[in-house]
Amino acid sequence: MTLKQRFKALVWQLKIAIMLVALEASIMALVSLSAIPNFFLTLKDLPTFIAIFAIFVGATVGLFFVARQLVFKKRWARSAAFFWQLIQLAIAWNSFSGEFANVFIGGYLVLTSITTIYFLFTKPVIEETQEAVDKE
Q: Is residue 73 within 8 Å of 128, Cβ to Cβ?
């Protein structure tokens, strides 16, 4: 069964959760890529740039992997997606105040996190991801 066929066979709540997680991963990828030209414009601390870029790329790859594993109905992927939503809520909380406050970014993060958490914990999604033992 291909990945596309697996995705079509899922309940609609899980499809929405997967699409939201994949959207978040795509935005993380765009943020990661946008840091490259910004570094060359400022030419500041190279080791710090490499460390932060590696963290962003790692988070992006991890988030795409979680979205893919949700298609395979892995129980741990639902937990990982929930953990990511909690991280986003923590970031959103700090987006409403401070020197670089941006209500739109904070609002987007809160909205997508709450929506994803809701869909991850609907009864059909919990039933779909209740696999006793991984077959693979």
A: yes
